[in-house]
Each structure stands twice: as C-alpha cells, then as structure tokens.
Amino acid sequence: MDIKEKLKQILVQDLNLEEVSPEEISDSAPLFGEGLGLDSLDAVELVVLVQKHFGVEIKDMEEGRAAFLSIDSLAAYIEGRKGA
Fold it and tell me: CA–CA separation, 83 vs 15, rounded Å?
C-alpha cells in the first residue's frame, strides 16, 4: 500500500468519515473546506495520526497548513520528511 492509499484509509477510519470511502477521495481534492470538509479539530488529530503512522512530526503551523492542502501535498510532505 502506498502513502496516498494509507492516508486515505487513515482519514476514513480514524477521522470517522462515514459518508466517503478511501477510493472516493481524490488525490488533489482539498482536505478542508469544500473538499472533504475537515475542520481544525480534524487537523490536530491528523498531526497526531501522521506522527503515529509515518513517524513524521509536523511542528510548524505554516508547514502543516501547506502539507494539509490535499492527499498529494500530504504524501509529498511525508516522503520528504521520512528518515530526515
């Protein structure tokens, strides 16, 4: 399973997105607002989940905001930080 697939699975299962399946989440769709509709509480939980599942810590708010734009941007952020 690649990072994007795992992220989608985490979003659906751990953030309880019951109305959508991992396969329905577009890699480029916004995670917040008009996209998946995640909110600030989901963002906090997502920071914890990324660290738990991928060992990548998001410390900077601006970096986090850029990383959380979409599945594409979050996967790129994780790939760039893994093992760093």
Answer: 26
